[in-house]
Fold this protein.
Amino acid sequence: MDVTGSDLLTVGLLVALEAMLSADNALVMAVMVLGLPRRQHKQALRYGLVGGFAMRIIATLLAVYLIRIAWVKLVGGLYLLYLTYSHFFGHREEGGDRRAPPPAQPMFGLSALWATIVRVELVNLAFSIDSILVAVAMSPKRWVVITGGILGIVALRLVVGQLISLVQKYPTLVDAAFVIIAWVGVKLGLEYFNAVGYIHFEVPQSVSLALIIIILGAAYLYARAKGPVEHAAIDPMEEKAAELLTSEETPKPESQIPNPN
């Protein structure tokens, strides 16, 4: 296996992007299980995330091959540009409805618990499409794409509470992630036009990585200079979801577990 410094840098960037793009998504998935009885919250979230993780690996392996097809690059690039447009110019009022906990009901012959787990898995996969497209566009090597995705998810699970707080206090970091998504979309478009012969140049991988680092660095400095955003009120539903994620992240010490006697 040929490992270069550029590969390691790409893995690090994928981990950072995964953390920024997925922190808020993890909160949404946690909200989805709140319609279940409290004793089933952790079980549904854990099974849903594990199942979604397995589906994501399969989707990533398929994407590594599909991205080599010229028209797939064009479609993927346009989709990433659409995501960026929706982030910056979409209707913000639609965001509130997606945070409402869906009723935990049986579906397709499944119990309410397993129906919720399936929904979490599907939403997890849907939320990961942007990350998968960005990853396969940044590197043609399967091990780089999969390693970056896995490490990003592991890092997210370990420090999800801190990441949610970070992106809420410094939304500029999430904006920077979508600027990077836009750049990757443009890069995919250029690769398509080069493949079909409309243009005759490609963006070097080193230039693309340097630009991504500059965007992240500029966003970090701007966020530090601007200071944290103070939210006037915390959505009780989001607060419950964040507590659920944090409890999944950090086991409760034995000294704090109440004695049943």
User: Anything to note?
Assistant: The chain has one domain: 5-247.
